[in-house]
Design goal:
By secondary structure, the chain is of the alpha+beta class. It contains 24 helices and 24 strands. Strands 10, 11, 12, 13 and 14 form a five-stranded antiparallel β-sheet that branches. The longest helix has 32 residues. The chain starts with a helix and ends in a 6-residue tail after the last strand.
């Protein structure tokens, strides 16, 4: 036990050292909005490397266009996307700077090998559609004799280069993380501590929650809060300026009158769709947006501008026959009415596998190879010739392409040449590609369905009324921020006041982090955040109006170096902590040594005896500080009853068994690896570590 006590003391020292190191090493991410820059032409600065605003805007525009092309229907708040792109650029520069200093290199041969052996999903899809394997696709893209003006080639080449760049970034991250992980070595004390953390303690206990003690029995003074704040002040240190604000947001939705008018208009549009051939009845209607989707009876998705899950409405249309129409009305805050019409159907090969032969050179050479292929020459014989001007790609039984996903010209050629003869897929004066259907699945029926969308927007009268009501409230409390933020005043006006702390990197009011990433907030609210950083405490903004919401914001306080003790959340946190400590003292005085066994304490606590398995290295049912006390008792505590005051409850605990076999099965090398993975999960911490490797300044709030 003496050795264990030394380890625990050493562990406490290590925790302090590690904590201090991580404070400087891990997260120093953004910014001081007040005068951190000597010029307003910078979007950001990473170490000594500057990111000029013009440079960033050009890059941002390019990447936004790429994302729009990949997913045209995904409407992202521009401020959110811009901040995401800036963070990507910052991460890229951090990674490059760290790799340069650590002499971590990634060459083209490594990337090519990875792209061929483990291609990204988008490249796999291209291979399926073209009938090529990744190696052949790479050769096709790098072919010096390919037509540089071929739009299909340029599109595939751009996609390939984009994915290769992502692959290079991932490989850099892996190499750098591996190098960093190799620098972390566990010493003897770390190994012993890790073994102790793996020990399992079987315990039984009775618990008294402090919530059973009346809050009125404990009083917390401002002096006590300040004392606790001073003790834990470093927990509230800020890496960037923050501002506490209150805002009011109202939804701008169509009124009941607006929806009635929209329903009448949709009825006329629907009748025009039903009573005319195809979509001729609505084709010229500027109030609807029409697209086309395709599916089969067996497909679980519909394919069009964007792949979507197949709703039952499509099956209903198919069952009803060509010309059938259906309508889907909006629900909740949704403004979109969708109208559907089954317009046509056709038979085509379901899916195909293609053999491809590429020939570099003039027409005479192309014609010669084409004649040989259709004269009976096998692909194996052609491959055996090892002619560098000829490349053969044989279908391998996996690279199927769906028939309806092929370009119209290719699908027509495939359908016309289903017999297995070679046909000219592509031809120029510099080279050609010949293809044949090596294998196909039987022809099936494809269904074309037109889909029209009508959006019900609120009328100008509705927008004016909503804005007038909010402006009236703002005018009433224009010079009285306390009145503006008063919940009773807001409720009387049928409004809600929301409190939030924002930073220069906040992209939307109301956005929240979760285990799935950032949950979105109020779209287009970045302008209000920018306003808040440009105005003094006590200021109330004008009404900001957007398509789906209106909002007004008020600035309460500016937090620079530390979040103060007066901050409502900090004050609440400290108050609850002090209350718990006082309730713990009350409970210990009332119950300690008042029973002889667990059953007696359970009776005093008016609860039941429970059981748990406690390990220091993983989550457990009991509080961390209580688990620590149990581990400190170790085997000497078996059978002994002890009352322990936790943060949230009083525990009467008895250790029944201590199992150390789990850790004894591992040698020191395995335990050292376990220690590194548990205490330094590099892969999860990688971006945070990069953020702390350089001083970063984010100036984007000035350009919002």
């Amino acid at each position: 036990m003496a050795a264990l006590e030394k380890i625990r003391k050493r562990a406490a020292i290590l925790t302090i050292v590690i904590g201090a190191g991580l404070l400087a090493f891990i997260l120093e991410e953004a910014v001081r909005a007040s005068g951190a820059f000597t010029t307003d032409t910078l979007a950001a600065k990473v170490g000594d490397e500057k990111i000029e605003m013009q440079e960033f805007q050009n890059l941002s525009q390019l990447r936004q266009q790429e994302r729009q092309q990949q997913d045209p229907d995904n409407k992202v708040d521009p401020a959110v996307m811009q901040q995401q792109i800036l963070q990507e650029v910052i991460n890229e520069k951090l990674l490059d700077q760290e790799c340069d200093e650590a002499c971590v290199n990634v060459d083209g041969a490594e990337i090519t090998e990875l792209m061929i052996q483990n291609p990204p999903q988008s490249i796999q899809q291209v291979c399926q559609q073209t009938g090529m394997d990744p190696k052949s696709l790479f050769d096709f893209i790098k072919n010096p004799n390919a037509d540089p003006n071929d739009p299909g080639l340029q599109q595939v080449k751009a996609l390939y280069e984009s994915e290769a760049q992502k692959m290079a970034t991932q490989l850099k991250q892996f190499k750098l993380a591996s190098l960093l992980m190799g620098c972390l070595q566990a010493n003897d004390i770390d190994i012993q501590l890790t073994k102790e953390e793996s020990t399992v303690y079987d315990v039984t206990f009775a618990k008294l929650d402090y919530s059973t003690i009346d809050d009125n029995s404990v009083k917390v003074t401002d002096a006590e809060i300040q004392e606790a704040y001073n003790k834990y002040k470093e927990l509230f240190k800020l890496n960037e300026e923050q501002r506490r604000v209150h805002y009011i947001k109202i939804d701008v939705d169509p009124s009941a009158k607006d929806r009635a008018a929209a329903a009448a208009k949709v009825s006329k549009i629907y009748a025009a769709l039903q009573n005319n051939a195809g979509i001729s009845g609505i084709r010229s209607n500027s109030e609807v947006v029409v697209d086309s989707v395709v599916t089969t009876a067996k497909d679980k998705q519909v394919y069009g501008a964007k792949v979507e899950n197949k709703e039952e409405i499509y099956n209903t249309l198919i069952a009803s026959g060509v010309g059938a129409c259906e309508k889907k009305d909006p629900t909740g805050r949704d403004r979109n009415t969708f109208l559907y019409k089954f317009t046509s159907q056709y038979q085509s090969i379901d899916s195909i596998g293609i053999d491809v032969v590429s020939v570099n050179g003039p027409k005479a050479r192309q014609d010669s190879v084409f004649a040989l292929l259709n004269g009976g020459m096998t692909l194996d014989s052609l491959t055996a010739s090892k002619n560098q001007n000829i490349m053969v790609q044989k279908f391998d039984g996996r690279s199927y392409a769906r028939g309806f996903q092929l370009p119209d010209t290719l699908r027509q050629k495939v359908n016309a040449n289903a017999s297995g003869s070679f046909f000219v897929f592509q031809s120029t004066d510099q080279g050609a590609a010949f293809a044949r259907v090596a294998e196909s699945k039987p022809a099936i029926t494809f269904y074309n369905i037109a889909r029209a969308k009508y959006v019900d927007y609120p009328s100008e009268a509705t927008i004016t009324q909503l804005q007038g009501n909010l402006q009236k409230y703002v005018n009433k409390y224009k010079n009285n921020i306390a009145g503006f933020e008063n919940e009773k005043n807001a409720k009387a006006a049928k409004l809600n006041v929301i409190e939030e702390v924002i930073t220069p990197a906040t992209t939307q009011l109301g956005a929240q982090s979760s285990q799935f990433g950032m949950m979105p907030g109020i779209p287009e609210s970045r302008k209000a955040i920018k306003w808040a950083f440009e105005n003094k405490p006590g200021s109330i903004s004008q009404v900001f109006t957007e398509d789906e919401s209106m909002f007004v914001i008020a600035v309460d306080e500016v937090y620079k170096d530390y979040t103060p003790a007066t901050d409502p959340q900090i004050k609440q946190f400290l108050t609850e902590m002090i209350k718990s400590e006082k309730k713990a003292a009350i409970a210990m005085k009332q119950y300690n040594d008042k029973a002889k066994d667990l059953a007696g304490y359970a009776q005093l606590f008016k609860t039941q005896v429970d059981s748990a398995q406690v390990t220091m290295g993983s989550q457990q049912m009991l509080e961390g500080m209580v688990a620590g006390r149990i581990a400190a008792m170790g085997k000497n505590g078996i059978g002994k009853l002890q009352v322990i005051a936790g943060r949230n409850a009083l525990y009467a605990v008895q250790i029944n068994k201590v199992d150390a076999e789990r850790s004894s099965k591992l040698d020191n090398k395995q335990v050292a690896m376990q220690y590194r993975q548990r205490h330094f999960p590099i892969q999860q911490m990688f971006n945070a570590i990069l953020q702390g490797s350089r001083k970063i300044k984010n100036n984007l709030v000035k350009f919002s």
